[in-house]
Amino acid sequence: MKIAIDGPAGAGKSTISKSVAKMLNYIYIDTGAMYRSVGLAAIKAGLDTRSETELQRIINNISIEIKNDEHGQKFFLNGKDVTKEIRKPEVSIAASNVATIPSVRLKLVDIQRKLAEKSSVVMDGRDIGTYVLPNAELKIFLTADVDERARRRYKELIEKKAETNFESVREEILFRDKNDSERDFAPLKQADDAVLLDTTNMSIDEVINKILSLVEEKCNDII
């Protein structure tokens, strides 16, 4: 079974998807971390993250690996553990930029689809239900008020002892919303057959339980 969870930055996709996957014993695939990895590679190479011409110099030679251990998922870029590094604010912007580039998306979508062929998965991102896994058995569009999303992201960064402030986090989210929804290739949007979940006033447990109930309904329908 394939579960696609889409939504804007800061909607809680990763947190929710990880928990749902763990409870169902499915594989969780964090597509956002893949784009962050490409963004980080571009930064390290001194490339313009909005230039397809420049990004093509590295995209075909990039190696991105996902490994699971007792502490969760780790991401490796060209053999180096970048799990913490890809969460930096400047990498978030770079990830949003490289995600607008067709050749980058084609490269990563190919990887994502191959992963989904191997087992039951929960995959989150911006275009999973509309483009990456259009035939997913369950599609969910997770969203929340922009101020609530900014508060969640700000709290997360503070807990990680990152130097930031609420306004800059809110501006970053607004930037990413615009970037993700206005890109020409596979933009952020709700799939026609996706279930809309506004989590502004919902706890994490409430969202998880709602999704698990949707999974149960879908499984009963399939049976």
UniProtKB/TrEMBL annotation:
MF annotations from Gene Ontology: ATP binding; CMP kinase activity; dCMP kinase activity
Annotated catalysed reactions: dCMP + ATP = dCDP + ADP; CMP + ATP = CDP + ADP
This protein's record includes keyword Transferase: yes
Every Cytidylate kinase domain range: 3-216
SUPFAM superfamilies: P-loop containing nucleoside triphosphate hydrolases (SSF52540)
UniProt-listed GO biological process terms: nucleobase-containing small molecule interconversion; pyrimidine nucleotide metabolic process
Signal peptide: none
Organism field: Monoglobus pectinilyticus
EC number(s) on file: 2.7.4.25
Name used for this protein in its record: Cytidylate kinase
Protein's cellular compartments: Cytoplasm
HAMAP family: Cytidyl_kinase_type1
Family: Belongs to the cytidylate kinase family. Type 1 subfamily.
InterPro entries tied to this protein: Cytidylate_kin (IPR003136), Cytidylate_kinase_dom (IPR011994), P-loop_NTPase (IPR027417)
GO CC term, one of those recorded: cytosol
Keywords linked to the UniProt accession: ATP-binding, Cytoplasm, Kinase, Nucleotide-binding, Transferase
Binding positions for ATP per the UniProt entry: G7, P8, A9, G10, A11, G12, K13, S14, T15
Enzyme class: transferase
